[in-house]
Amino acid sequence: MIELIRVSHRYLCRKVLKEVTFAAEKGQITCLIGLNGAGKSTVLKAIMGLTPIHGGTIQIDGKPIGRDTYEQVSYIPDHLAVPPSMKLSDALQFMEDFYSRWNKDRASELMRFFGLDYRERAGRLSKGTAAKFNLVLGLAQDSDYIIMDEPFAGIDLFSRESIAEVFSSELVGSRGVLLTTHEVGEIEHLIDQAVLLRDGTVARTFECEQVRSEEGKSVVDVMKEVLLA
Ligand SMILES: Nc1ncnc2c1ncn2[C@@H]1O[C@H](COP(=O)(O)OP(=O)(O)OP(=O)(O)O)[C@@H](O)[C@H]1O
After folding, report:
1. What digits encode the pLDDT tens for the residues 14-59?
2. Burial (0-12, 13-18, 19+ Cβ within 10 Å), 225
3. Atom 2 (ligand 1): residue with closest C-alpha?
4. Which residues pair with 9 in a beta bridge?
5. Which intervals hold domain ABC transporter (predicted)?
6. 9 lines ligand 1 (CB under 6 A)
7. Do the Cβ atoms of 155 and 127 come closer than 8 Å?
8. For 77-116, what is each residue's pLDDT tens digit?
9. Which of 2, 31, 92, 147 can pair with 24 through a Cys bridge, CB separation 3.0 to 4.6 Å?
């Protein structure tokens, strides 16, 4: 599991994460939910070691994050970080050369699934198509966990549906997924656990099915209750 224990982070003097504690399990989809500026992207970057933490610990399967994190966890940022002039085929080749756990067959399957053209250049992709290619780059790594920052941002309904379909497919399989999204209503049927972040602190963590059956509430209901209170 990816485990954060009392993780704190500050930008200059401002505390952005305050003793954030939660765990994202393998085989589960955990959704980090919060209003703009709550600290969601900072949490994901901290897990990847892309931003330092100023307190607490982050462990993956019981070990502190470190050099191996990139092999264990695929990070899919909210933008496609491929040079605009690069063809998709070349970007895939680069990934294959760089990542020892790159799964070429899965990459081909994902390219087919999303109907992407290998000859296209990254800079010419529409926003939705770039988001799909971004997912290919992340999901084709044989990692144990997948972290996604806003995979649905600015994407049309049908593309969102096909992206959501991937979550429940073999392409994700038994890996652990930790994602942030503002489109909670659309994917709440896929989420196992929700972590509500408010002003850099965890306001509530819950199992979605439990809240549905015991309290008769949707994730969006709880989110409104907690975050808009
Ligand atoms: N490079 C930076 N320098 C200073 N402050 C920053 C920087 N990056 C983020 N912040 C601040 O940290 C806080 C948390 O930002 P973060 O991007 O993690 O929020 P978020 O929950 O992902 O927001 P959103 O939903 O808008 O993407 C915000 O108040 C933001 O202004």
Report:
1. 999 999 999 999 999 999 999 999 999 999 999 999 999 999 999 9
2. middle
3. 11
4. 17
5. 2-224
6. no
7. yes
8. 988 989 999 999 999 999 999 888 899 999 999 999 889 9
9. 2
What is the value of ipTM here, to two decimals? 0.95
pLDDT reading at 154 higher than 80:
no
Cα(149) to centroid of ligand 1, in Å?
A: 13
Residue with tokens 């952005």: 16
d(CA 167, CA 69): 22
Ligand 1 atom nearest 12 alpha carbon? 4
Ligand 1 centroid from CA 42, angstroms: 7
CA 134 to ligand 1 center in whole angstroms? 21
Q: CA 129 → CA 95, 162, 211, distances in Å? A: 18, 11, 35
CA of 200 to the centre of ligand 1 (A): 10
Angle between helices 157-167 and 104-113 (to 10 degrees): 150
Does residue 37 line the site of ligand 1, with CB under 6 A? yes
Architecture of domain 2-227 in this structure: 3-Layer(aba) Sandwich (3.40)
* Whether the CB of 42 sits within 6 Å of ligand 1: yes
